[in-house]
Amino acid sequence: MFPLSKGRVTRQAHVGLPEGTFEEEHGREAFDGRASHLYRSHPPTAWIRIEGPLRPRAYDLTGLKPPDQADAAGEWQRILSNEDVSIFVSKRTEPMPYYLRDSDGDLCYFVHRGTGKLETDYGPLRYREGDFLTLPKGTTHRMVPENSETFLYVVEGRGEYHLPEKGILGRHALFDPGVLETPDPQPHDEQGEFEVRVKRDGQYTTLTYPFHPLDVVGWQGDLCPTRLNKEDFRPIVSPRYHLPPSVHAVWKSDGFEVGLFAPRPTETGDPTALRVPFFHSNIDKDEVLFYHQGQFFSRAGIGEGFITHHPQGLQHGPQAAAIEASKTKEFADEYAVMVESDRPFERDDALATVEVEGYATSWARGMGLID
Questions:
Q1: What pLDDT, in 10s, does the model give residues 80-122?
Q2: Per residue in 242-257, is it b (16+ CB within 10 Å) or e — as a string?
Q3: Which fold has domain 38-59+234-366?
């Protein structure tokens, strides 16, 4: 296939849109496949009513109360899941009184709030706000918070986490693999009774050891826990072209990827270039965005600790006020974690209690089309 051009268009995507139009990217395989750009007279998200199973949703996770918040022996709270990936929330103030061995998949803990220590078979890793902590499937570990609550956004994948392909950018783009921190052994020599919970198919089997389970004196290989902080991530930007979300990938896995939107300059090099995310259709991916920190200029009414979920099949993009404000905005001061999944997510019941009312029609409301 070769690109065609019909009607009123621009020669360069995301730059110099025809007067009075809104650009929508209609593409396959997220932003990697074939695509066309449609130039509409109205924002494609400005519906005034929505009925049926598909609905953009937003949730305030600061109001969620996972079991481990009140009970040190409690579990995480699952919020979204499919066959490839599950997302959980953990809010822990006390050390885990047990050790966990997750046999359902690799883990990526994103530390939204708190400091402490992640104890593992391989040795300990100190953690702080903004850390990505990855653990291979089956790694025995426990969380030990310090002084305050540790708020974790947990992404459990069935496949292995690996670094994204960086192509012509080179292997040191986004973050140099050399910044990844790995643990040194710190074997424990203790006797007593130690509980290890093995998680498989969402159920737990309890193992009781007469010695401390973290007794590894050394390790070698290419499979191990890692730590990466948000400040080590260096986003790719262009002063004259708004890049797609796919350039912000941190980790890839089977059926999904994890990305990070980090503070970055906007597209000030060309006054006709878009400075906010362009409207696009979710055809092959569900997108879940966790708002970690900063000023989220693409939409109003969203704060730190919120998530938005945009399902496959519905367009989404910036709200009207964000488009106007972006015309003079020179810096995007925000951190947000994206999970983009091939399969649709199913919502757990707990999320219904913290849903943001009216989000599904917030684009029309922002334009004054509805009250």
A1: 999 999 999 999 999 999 999 999 999 999 999 999 999 999 9
A2: bebbbbbbbbbbbbbb
A3: Jelly Rolls (2.60.120)
